[in-house]
Automatic annotation (TrEMBL):
InterPro entries linked: Acyl_CoA_acyltransferase, GNAT_dom
Domain N-acetyltransferase: 55-166
Protein name: GNAT family N-acetyltransferase
Pfam family, one: Acetyltransf_1
Provenance organism: Roseofilum halophilum BLCC-M91
Highest taxon of source: Bacteria
Lineage: Bacteria, Bacillati, Cyanobacteriota, Cyanophyceae, Desertifilales
Amino acid sequence: MIYTCHLATQEDTAKIAPLMAAFSQERAAIDPTRTLKPDFDFEGYISDRINKPLHYFWLLEHTEPKLPNYSAIVGYLFVYAQDEAPPPDLPADLVHRHHEARMYEPRRVGTALAFYIHPRHRKPKAIKQLIEAGIQQAKEWKITDLDVQVGADRQGLQALLERCGFTRTAVQYTCHFNLSPDEELPSLHPPHPQQHPIAIPEFDALPLRDPHTQELVMNAEGKPVFLKPLRNEAGEVLKTSQGLPVYPTPVQDPQTQAWVFDRSGELLTCPVLRDRQGQVVEYQGIPQYRPPVYHISQGQVTLKQDGEGRYLFCEPEQDPQGHIIFDPNGKPVYKPATVASQLPSMLPLNHS
């Protein structure tokens, strides 16, 4: 038997789905608090996760030298990576809040959301090979810590992980309570305002809501504010590389976190970043926007404005040929600042 490992692509979705279904069934069998949905769409779930930034599947593939046309995906390791430190371009006051809300020093952590190998292929060599593929990926991403959750009945895998350098840090216990279907249940949802039907001006318009209360945001005239897809100079909807419409990103006040309206009563939005060909600039599949310019005085962070009260936004650095400059990680490099009212009128934030 020969085993190899490689990163999954969309073409592998259908091959991973039965393995994830088996993993979920095994987990539900030993955990009374988990009941698997009978009609869950595993292929759709996997396809969505493969497209998400910082999510990756390492696959274990089995081949046989005597069967040149045979190959099968027999295992997978699903990992999500994140940096617990605040982004380097986060405003100073938000950095302070970020640190205040966390008691531990930040890590660059990779969390194994699922680890599964078909029972017929649970051989120490194959298991170790898949684990080492994940460890190698972690080293390439400069991850400091790896978290793996293993079922209580997988003593062999636990021992193998410890031989690969992992340390047992916790033991999880669960307790399930059966409730009568006729029993009245107290709400465990956080309070939220009552949602009233609203008239959507266009099928693709999104109502803007307060990030804290989820209430509709109203303009100075008392009408709800909607976000609509951005359009270019020809009136065509701007789309991402995956064909999704690009929506404007509203600006929040760094002190109150409330949405900001300019002097004319229009919602303030960050200009989307476009290259010389008019294409939306992306980073890891996410559209990039020119951030506001901030002013710090006596420890207070505010949005910077010019002498006429117009808000300022950062402009991208460009080379002599007019191409946008990116840092080593692929993110655009900005310099301050440009005036919002001097930008092309391609950010239609219409009010109904």
